[in-house]
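Progress narrative, Year 2. Work on UDP-glucose 6-dehydrogenase from Dietzia aurantiaca advanced from sequence curation to structure prediction during this period.
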Amino acid sequence: MRMTVFGTGYLGATHAACMAELGHEVLGVDVDAVKVDRLCQGEVPFFEPGLPEILSRHVESGRLRFTTDYAEAAEFADLHFIGVGTPQRKGDFAADISHVEDVVARLAPLVSRDAVVAGKSTVPVGTAARLQEIADRSAADGVRVDVVWNPEFLREGFAVEDTLRPGRIVVGLSDPECAARALIDEAYAPIMESDPCPVIVTDLATSEMVKVSANAFLATKISFINAVSEVCEAAGADVTVLADAIGMDPRIGRKFLGAGLGFGGGCLPKDIRAFMARAGELGAAQALTFLREVDTINMRRRDKMVDLAAEVCGGTVIGTTVAVLGAAFKPNSDDVRDSPALNVAGMLSLKGARAVVYDPQALDNARALFPTLAYADSALEACEGADVVLVATEWGEFVELEPAAVARVARGRVLLDGRNCMPGERWREAGWTYRALGRGVSAPADARAVAGAAAAVAGSAALARV
Ligand SMILES: NC(=O)C1=CN([C@@H]2O[C@H](COP(=O)(O)OP(=O)(O)OC[C@H]3O[C@@H](n4cnc5c(N)ncnc54)[C@H](O)[C@@H]3O)[C@@H](O)[C@H]2O)C=CC1
Ligand SMILES: O=C(O)[C@H]1O[C@H](OP(=O)(O)OP(=O)(O)OC[C@H]2O[C@@H](n3ccc(=O)[nH]c3=O)[C@H](O)[C@@H]2O)[C@H](O)[C@@H](O)[C@@H]1O
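Result:
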């Protein structure tokens, strides 16, 4: 079947390419002409494993095209997916839904026969109903544009796999009997034939809330373990062992109990804030006040990492060099939106350290967002002359770093593990001080290394003041 996808960012470009992979004819639409040009050449303008292969294959075959032309899109198909951004609104916590509104307001008048708009963007509950009103107002006489909601649960880094083999498909309809259902069923029919998953058909409001509730739960789980991690730090307990142990209870589960620098990215942080804001608008603010704490705990982890860097440097990071390994908000992505890694690098720099950042995929995005930080082209280059090496994103290549190789270029012997991902014992055996969030201070041998590092740092601080 034919379909369009409005918005060709992380979500939209993936959805468009995967729909083509499923055998559909797809037209991707974006207002960003530069992005559309690159996509037309078969190039993915961001890093997402597996996406370039399928996107270029279908652009070449002609099954997948991209345009900035809304009129062409209105004519091309009867099913229009929306995957445009819903960022945090400037000045408050609410979601900015102006882009989704813009799509419907511009598309509906151009549609010449009945059509379905299927929203995939993450939106505050009530948005679909509002879009239906816009569609009803803007569509030509005798033309019906039905708005349905079909939230997306893909994870960056696994976006292709998650789209082609989803865990569930949620469809929100204003009327269970409406004709729109048949078009959505047709779009996902190839998945149902090859690798079926549960399909939950519900009303619009529930479908919108399923999505934000899922993200709020994941964020809460991460902040829960990070709050426990703070107590572990105070008590000298080990949060990673604790997470393994509680995670063995199938009612809890080990996933999303990864303690460390906490969650970032273009979704979890803004989605919990927008959920709180919407609950407030609906008169249910009390219901979600705990999400404010979830947010606060999350942001506190970043401060804690900066404090830990100061502690291992003898009280201050002024004049020190810190190698920050990682810039993306998580591995297997080049996304630096609300990245804990860059936030920590920025804070270290503001406190007087020279933060040298390296990331295997996110350097261009990081440079564009934080042009004043120092950047290196490899992990070892970032570690050159570093007093402290701080792992902020758990890329595999960092986990596999050889302590001896890093020791040859670094000045200090302190490894800070912001993701509890490094083989700490190996680094300790190689003479490094290994410190991680949520795990008590290490053995006396490490204390000597800290003292050594502090002395080196004091020396470099003195040099910096000259
Ligand atoms: N990134 C992800 O992993 C996931 C994102 N989501 C949700 O999907 C939505 C999009 O997120 P991303 O793809 O990450 O954002 P993004 O910022 O990467 O992409 C948004 C795209 O929409 C385009 N756009 C803006 N206004 C437009 C308009 N009027 N017409 C056509 N295109 C327009 C922008 O130029 C941009 O290319 C958000 O609501 C997000 O919460 C949901 C699940 C996963
Ligand atoms: O709505 C969205 O955009 C998406 O948001 C998240 O996906 P994503 O942001 O790609 O990344 P996650 O894997 O969920 O990680 C989010 C953040 O939490 C952090 N995290 C994750 C897991 C964990 O145990 N600990 C932890 O700190 C990660 O480092 C990362 O910064 C959800 O997992 C997706 O289901 C959802 O579709």
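The chain has two domains: 2-197, 203-466. Residues 203-466 form a domain with the Rossmann fold fold (CATH 3.40.50.720).
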